[in-house]
Design a protein that fits this description.
The chain is mostly beta strands. Helices cover about 0% and strands about 50% of the residues. The strands form four sheets. A four-stranded antiparallel beta sheet has the order 1-2-3-4, with no helix packed on it. A four-stranded antiparallel beta sheet has the order 5-6-7-8, with no helix packed on it. The mean pLDDT is about 80.
């Protein structure tokens, strides 16, 4: 069954797909997500962009999260097709993006090393931090309290993988978001 017709004349270039909990599929590619039911009927298409017409997003991975939404990652290119940045995004169950993170985000909080293995050190200047949340690609959250006097997090309870991280202050407001790779050495 033919499930996508591009009437604008551009190449949609789909790169990955995953089965969803409702028996359907989610397909990701160049600047778009496509959701189909279990009979391959098109339910919705969502276009994803950076807000800059000179850049293209190529989604390389899509997974359904526990809350019914989707996590994905990809690469941002300029019009000359040279690499610009990587990104991670989170959508709700209807494909609306509610988190979009790339390396150009504010770096007022520094965390290292990245990739990290057993410990994560945090430099936060005068910012009062209270919590660091790790979100895996399935949407599972793991939270750590941050001690301002010794801002080092032990990562032995975090499995290897790619994570969205969220720093929160003592009023539980999000101060900064980022991404990190955890790779424990044997």
């Amino acid at each position: 069954k033919f499930i996508y017709s591009n009437k604008q004349g551009e190449n949609p270039y789909f790169t990955c797909m995953a089965k969803t909990s409702d028996g359907g599929i989610i397909v990701a590619g160049r600047n778009r997500l496509l959701k189909c039911d279990n009979k391959l009927n098109n339910l919705w298409i969502r276009y994803i962009d950076t807000g800059e017409t000179s850049k293209t997003i190529e989604l390389r991975c899509i997974k359904q999260s526990r809350d019914g939404g989707y996590f994905g990652c990809g690469t941002i290119f300029n019009n000359e097709r040279s690499y610009k940045d990587i990104l991670i995004f989170k959508t709700d169950s209807l494909g609306s993006i509610n988190k979009f993170i790339n390396n150009k985000e504010s770096q007022s909080i520094k965390y290292f090393p990245n990739p990290s293995n057993n410990f994560l050190s945090i430099e936060h200047g005068d910012i009062i931090l209270s919590e660091l949340i790790f979100i895996d690609l399935l949407g599972k959250e793991t939270s750590f309290s941050i001690d301002s006097k010794n801002p080092t997090i032990e990562l032995n309870t975090i499995k290897d993988g790619l994570y969205i991280i969220i720093f929160k202050d003592n009023e539980h407001k999000i101060i900064q978001k980022g991404k990190i790779v955890i790779n424990h050495f044997n």
